[in-house]
Amino acid sequence: MSQVNSAVSQANPHWLPASTLGRAIMSVIAGSALLALSAHVSVPLLFTPVPFTLQPMAVLLLGLLLDPAVAFATLVAYLLEGAAGLPVFAPVAASSGFALLGPSAGYLWAYPFAVVIVSKLYRSGHARTFSWAALSAVAGAMVYFTGGAAWFAVTLHQSIGITLKMTVWPFVAGDALKVVLAAGIVTGIHRLRNRKTAEA
Questions:
Q1: What is the C-alpha to C-alpha distance for residues 44 and 32, in angstroms, rounded to an integer?
Q2: What is the largest CA-CA distance in the chain?
Q3: H or E, element range at 123
Q4: Is the pTM of this model over 0.85?
Q5: Count of alpha carbons within 13 Å of 75, Cβ hemisphere only?
Q6: Yes or no: is domain 2-199 CATH 1.10.1760.20?
Q7: Which of 104, 113, 196, 197 has its CA 20 to 30 A from that of 44?
Q8: Residue 184 pLDDT more than 80?
Q9: Any residues with CB less than 8 A from the CB of 186 and at least 6 apart, and which?
């Protein structure tokens, strides 16, 4: 038993207990699976190559639920899974070519940064209320919208006006709802945890 404990301590960073590492790994696995499932809830739109998916909501939810490092690792793991050929991206994006280089790839590349912004803001010392969760999620949404629009404009040589019509304006209302849902889910989870803690 002492040899096993010694091996575990050598394999893990000295600042990360084995139990914490295990939870982080499970969070990354579960989070990347959630992203893949949400990407497949996809509705193609006739006027833009960018599909409507539930993936942005999953990104915002993971940012609110996970610490910044774990959230970032989850999104990186997800992108690596897609790069390796696993069917984790939206079917519409995948069918139009290599998704990480396609018209909507800017959203994918921006997701790791968006999730970190959401996580850091939500944990920046403010009370974890619904309003603060929603504001943190809005900041993350602005990051992935910016990344998606910038990539689309540069790779397809489109003007700002056309880019916004294709990548931002059609999705604002839907993503506002995703912000509200993600903030509501996380706020409900925290209230439930606080209630159980008070009862204990």
A1: 22
A2: 65
A3: none
A4: yes
A5: 28
A6: yes
A7: 113
A8: yes
A9: 61, 64, 65, 128, 133
